Amino acid sequence: MIDPAFWRGMALGASLIIAIGAQNAFVLRQGILKRHVGLAVAVCAVCDMALIAAGVAGMGGLIAAYPRFLTAVTWGGAAFLFWYGLRAWRAAFRGTGALQADGSRVATQDMTWQRALVLVLMLSLLNPHVYLDTVILLGGIGAREPAPGNAWFAAGAMTASVLWFTTLGYGARLLAPLFSRARAWQILDGIVGVMMWGLCAGLIAQQL
C-alpha cells in the first residue's frame, strides 16, 4: 500500500518542478527539435532525484549552514544564464531557421550529444533555485516525515520529476508543425532570452 507521504511529496514536487525555468525551456526546445530528448530528460530527472535524496538525507541543513556555497552557485549561475540568454537573443534576431518535415532545423548546426550534456548539466546544477527547491525545501519537509514516510515522500517528489520531464520532452514534438515557420522559432528564442535574463537579474538582485 502506498503511504500518504508519497502523494504529499508528489504534489509538492510537481508544484515546484512545473514552474517555468531554465531546465524546462531546454527540454522543451530539444523535444521540439527531436534531438537528444532522452538525454535531456534523463539528466534533468537524475539530477533532481539525486538532490531530493540528498535533501531528505539531511544535506539541506548542511547547505543552509554554509551560505558561501549558495553564493558561489548564484554568481556562477547568473553568469551562465546571461550567456545562455544572449545566445537565445542572437538566434531570435538572426532567425535561425525552421523545422523540415523530418524534424531537422534548417540553417542550424545540429547540437552534439556532448554539448547537449554539458548544457543540461549546467542548467541543472548552476541554478541556486534548484538547490533551494529540491534540497532545502523538499528535503527539509521530507526529512520531517517519520520513517518510512520520509522515503515515500522522496519517492513521490522523484516520481513527479520523472513524469514531468518525460511528458515535456516527448510531448513537445506535438508542437513541431507550429515550428515549421522561422517566425515561431524567433518568438520562442525571444521568450527564452527574456526568461534567462529575468532569472539572471533575479539572482544578482539577491546578492546586492
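The above is record 1. Record 2 follows with the same two-line structure.
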Amino acid sequence: MKRVGFLYEKICDIDNIYKAIDKVTEGRRNLKPCQRLLKRKEHYAYYLQRRLLEGNYILGKSGHFMLTQKNGKIREISVPRLFPDQVVHWAVCLVLKDLFMKGMYSHNVGSIEGRGGIAGKKYIDKIYAKDKTIKYCMKLDIKKFYPSIKHDKLKELFRKKIKDEQTLKLIDAIIDSDGDEGLPIGFYSSQWFANFYLQEIDHFIKEQLHIKYYVRYIDDMVMFDTNKRKLHKAKCALDKFLLDNNYGITIKENWQIWKIHSRPLDFLGYKFYKNKTLLRKTLFLSIMRSVNKIKKKGYCTIKRARSLSSLLGWLNHIPAGRDCYVNLIKPIISKKKLATIVSVVDKKINIKKMRYEYGSTI
C-alpha cells in the first residue's frame, strides 16, 4: 500500500487553521474563552502556524473530571486547552479525514459524520426484512476500549499509512499527551484515532472470516450469519487475531450468540424484533421525564428544549413514534414550540455576538 506524504504543509495551512478555530468554537461562541479566541482569530492562527512550522509546539496538560452516565458507568473525561491544543487536534483531523475515510469499513457507524446510529439501524432493519436466510446473531464489545489502546500499536498503524515524519511526530505528541497508554475520552482526535485503530480488524472480520453482515458502533460489534458454528469460530479467530497482532484489547466475557428471532437485539438505542423495531426503554423514559418536568413546572428552559428536541429525533425512526408524539408529548409541548424556544435564544446570542464583534447598535 502506497503511503501518503506532504500532509504537514496542509495541517499548517492558514486556511486549515482558520477552519479548525471555527470548528472548535462552533456551538459555544457565547463562551468568553471562545469570544477571546474569535476576537483575535487572525493573531492566534498565525501564532499557531508559526509554532507548528518551527516544530517547537508542545501540547499542554489537560483538565479532568469524572462523569457518571445514566447506566451507572463512571468515566474520566479529559478536557484539553481550548487554544492551542483543541485547535491542533481539529487541524490534524481535518487533514487526515480523507485518509481515515478511505480505508474505513462502510458499516462502521460510530462517531462518523453523515452516518451515526440511524444509518446502522436502517442497515439492520434491511437485514431483518430482506434476508430470511440469516438465523443467528453474535453481539460483543471490547473491554475498556479507550483505556486499552496501545500507543505503540496505534503509532505503528499510522506509519503504515503515512510517510510524512513531521505529521507522524505531531500525531505521536497528541497520542502521548494524556498518559502512556490509552486514548483520552474527550479529545476530538480520540474518536478518529479509535476508529482507525479498529480499521484492520473490521476488514479481517469481513474479508477473512467472511461474516455475512457486520455492524460496528465504536467498540460494540454485531455479526449476523446463517451458521451458529461459524460465529463461534469467528469469535475464536478474532481473539487470536487481537493477541497475535499485539492490539492489547480483549472482548468482554458477556459476548452472546442467539437465534435471531428468539429475542430482540438491543443495539444503537433500539430493540430489533422480527417484525418491528422499538425504542430502548431507557431512552423512552428519558423523553417522558423531560416532558413531565415541563408539565410540572409550566415552562421549558433552553437547556431542556435543546435536549428534548434531540431526544425526539429518536422517535422519527420507529413506526409507533408518531403516535407516541401525538398522544403523549404534543399536548404538553410541541416540536414547533421547542424549535421556537431554541431559535429565540440563538437569535439573542447572535445579536450579542454582532455587538461584540462589530460594535453594532442593534
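The longest strand covers residues 63-68.
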